[in-house]
Amino acid sequence: MFFGKSRRGFFATLVALVVIIPRRIVAQSARLDVSQTSAGIRVIATVDPIDSPWELEQSTDNARWTVVPSTQGQTKWNIPVSTNEPTTFFRLKLVTNATMKVSGNTYQLPVNGESLFTIMTNLPLTFKSRLYSGLGQFVTEINEVKKGNGFNWMLFLNGELTTTGSSQVFPKANDRVEWRLI
């Protein structure tokens, strides 16, 4: 969805979003209500389904977009806008990937039903692992940094330590995966 504010008022252009997931199609819908306040602009989002991860983006030229800081699940924003800006555009973007952090690097992970282990084989990093029966693949080395001296590569999903290996973790949209050597 694209919403703009011009000196003559507000205008909106609707863009339909369809997310293709293997073997099924899921339609996501969202609506933005934009109103002017004395401090700037109030944006209220109505999304369906409610638990879909969305990001609000803002642009002054409809070409360079920045994410409006928010917390997950937020549906109301009060955005200060300079009166010198002739137009401000807004759009909601469906988050369709997960992120993975390793030693300060962030990787975008596709959300396609594959395990983290399988996804990692297609990323620009190297790793080694060991298979434990019933628990899956446990990573022992990432980018030539090995476990040892009492330290192990530990897998965190959304801030929580996992109890299974990377082959048993299936990232979902907006998941945060992190590898820590602890």
Protein topology:
Blueprint (H helix, E strand, L loop, with lengths): L1 E5 L2 E5 L3 E5 L2 E14 L2 E9 L5 E6 L6 E2 L8 E4 L8 E7 L2 E6 L2 E6 L5 H5 L6 E6 L3 E7 L2 E2 L6 E5 L2 E2 L14 E6 L1
Parallel strand pairs: 10-17
Antiparallel strand pairs: 1-2, 1-9, 3-4, 4-5, 5-8, 6-7, 6-9, 10-11, 12-13, 13-14, 15-16, 15-17
Q: Biggest sheet: strands side by side, in what order?
A: 2-1-9-6-7
In percent terms, what proportion of residues is strand? over 45%
Uncertain segments of ≥5 residues (pLDDT<50)? Answer: 1-27
Number of helices: 1
Largest sheet: 5 strands, antiparallel
**Average pLDDT rating:** 78
Query: How helical, in percent, are the residues?
Result: under 10%
Shape: elongated
Q: How far from one another are the termini?
A: 43 Å
Q: What pattern of helices and strands is seen along the backbone?
A: EEEEEEEEEEEHEEEEEE
Structural class: mainly beta
CA-atom Rg in angstroms: 21 Å
Protein model, in words:
This protein is mainly beta and 182 residues long. The chain folds into 2 domains: 2-94, no CATH class; 97-181, Ferric Hydroxamate Uptake Protein, Chain A, domain 1, CATH 2.170.130. Helix content is 3%, strand content 53%. The protein contains 1 helix and 17 strands. The strands form 4 sheets. It has a 5-stranded antiparallel beta sheet, with no helix packed on it. The longest helix has 5 residues, at 116-120.
Kindly list the characteristics that best describe this protein.
disordered N terminus; 53% strand; 2 domains; mainly beta; five-stranded antiparallel sheet; five-stranded mixed sheet; Ferric Hydroxamate Uptake Protein, Chain A, domain 1; 182 residues
